[in-house]
Amino acid sequence: MSKRSLCAVLLMFAVTSIGAAPVASPLELLVLGSGGPGATGRAGAGYIVLVDGEPRIEVDAGPGTFVRLGEAKLSLAKIDIVLLTHLHIDHTGELPGFFKARAVSGDGPVNVQVFGPTGHRGNGDQATFPSTSRFIDLLFGPEGAYSYLRDFAEPLTIDATNVDASATAPKTPKVIYSENGLNISAIAGHHGDAPAVIYRIDYRNQSITFSGDIDANGIDNLRRIAQRSSLLVFNCVVLDPPGSRPVLYTLHTPPKTIGVVAADTGTKRLLLSHLSPSIDQQRANVEASIRKHYRGPIVFAEDGMRLQL
Ligand SMILES: [Zn+2]
Questions:
Q1: For labelling alongside 142, which of 112, 176, 236, 288 has CA 20 to 30 A away?
Q2: 230 CB contacts (<8 Å, ≥6 apart)?
């Protein structure tokens, strides 16, 4: 090779290695909050899903996620979808902060679609939960606590859709959003008396499934929707019995079952999140229990963690 052509090759290499922008994975996940209801140093539940490198979807909005959102230095201007797994405070408490940040994040009218569970009227021991549309109305509707936000910065419209999370809900995943190859499907979950939804996001042969908080009664539906997920975000709160308080097993799934579900669904990678202090203290045991069934990569979530799929 002549000196001149060698120079040309070296120059080409320099341009492509310095100038080429990193290629974004079709789907990426940013963990805003990896904790639960306790003030343990982790933010409550919350995630941003990036599509072709652009933040588009917020999943849950627990307390503390607002700060993590700012630390990530991402633009909120294209986030137009919010998925709520259920309406407990550790999953929705930061929603007003998110919407105000979203309202001041760009120029032009803001339109956000919110999906979440149907409501439930409690009796006796069971609590009452509003439907998601009623919940949004109570916060941002004309008579809502934060009704001022609709015209504060830019005109803000929030369209809420209730996903059937009742005991008679269909046992097959339903597509709730489909545009330009981005598909979001949902199926009823189960989290004690709180109506709950499991979501799956599909884009260009990649997929993320969010279990939400889930007890044994929701596991069959999780199996149905999570088949061959690139990433399964599984809320991990309790130890294998009898390591946690009995009442917690009516709300959450132990590591042994997490491992069985991850293996049976052919999940490629498992992200354990919504971590309680007891899980953090016994990570080795938790991982060993899951490993009895599941051979794929297991990741413990941290606030601010960003995963390419
Ligand atoms: Zn929770």
A1: 176
A2: 27, 206, 207, 208, 268, 269, 309
- Ligand 1 centre distance from Cα of residue 134 (Å): 20
- pLDDT per position as a tens digit, 14-33: 333 444 556 789 999 999 99
pTM score of the predicted model: 0.92
- Residue 31 has, within 13 A of its CA and on its CB side, a CA count of 27
CA of 9 to the centre of ligand 1 (A): 55
User: Burial of 43 by CB count in 10 Å (0-12 exposed, 13-18 middle, 19+ buried)?
Assistant: buried
Strand partners for 58: 48, 82
Q: How close is the Cα of 250 to the center of ligand 1, in Å?
A: 13
Positive or negative: CA dihedral 210, 259, 307, 202: negative
Dist. CA 45 → ligand 1 center (Å): 7
pLDDT in tens, 275-285: 999 999 999 99
CA of 276 to the centre of ligand 1 (A): 10
